[in-house]
């Protein structure tokens, strides 16, 4: 299709964009940043990553696309480090599709990019989804263990939307869980969803996993989550994903 061809060109020209969304602690201090890919098509305008990531996955483009995103994100982070000694957030979170994770070269390619930009592995958090464990359980587990040996952390994204059961959490090699925004947005109106969020947070604490609530849009949600002692908060209440210059102006110029 046209979009597939145009995406191929866009990757060849290295012209995808990235946006940055802050992750806050309970004091509303930025403790991390999630990187989100953006594609502005010259005719169709912004194409949602839900659409172009899937195109990339189906057309053998996701691996090079993914490395370009990581390269750009690390370049930007290194730039922030140089210009702003005050940059003190701890993690850069990258969305990684299953195809990237199970690619044998991935660990080496990622470490090379970190070395190129002089980014400590401890700052990198890879967001994966439960789907990676469905088809490629053992390969995924091995890849995650290897990555974690370098200090890279692993976050389970969109938690609650897949086929996960709460008791699978204790055996996966992960460091963090992101509660899906569908739970966060309905929690203040639906008692059973509130109970679910409460249970997930309490279980994560017992398992020593960080908990991120995504899709925090209103202060009522932020307050409920603070009451449950959630660790990290992300959503439009604080900021939508922003281009690097705006992110810098809003959160790093202090
Ligand atoms: O803003 P939002 O529309 O950015 O993102 C939609 C979906 O696209 C999310 O599920 C997000 O995880 C995914 N996504 C965004 N950027 C990337 C990326 O760089 N790589 C991968 N694999 N997925 C991404
Ligand atoms: O950034 P935000 O979460 O508001 O974007 C939601 C979706 O809308 C994204 O998946 C993105 O592809 C699309 N989108 C449309 N216009 C814009 C824009 O000007 N900036 C950003 N960041 N996303 C846009
Ligand atoms: O990677 P993941 O599936 O978590 O992608 C996060 C998605 O959620 C992105 O599309 C991002 O733009 C979007 N997002 C971030 N904050 C909010 C929010 O507060 N509300 C909603 N509806 N979407 C959000
Ligand atoms: Mn994510
Ligand atoms: Na998510």
UniProtKB/TrEMBL annotation:
Gene source species: Marinomonas rhodophyticola
Sequence ranges assigned to domain EAL in this UniProt record: 1-254
Portion of the full sequence shown: 183 to 436 of 436
Superkingdom of source: Bacteria
Protein name: Bifunctional diguanylate cyclase/phosphodiesterase
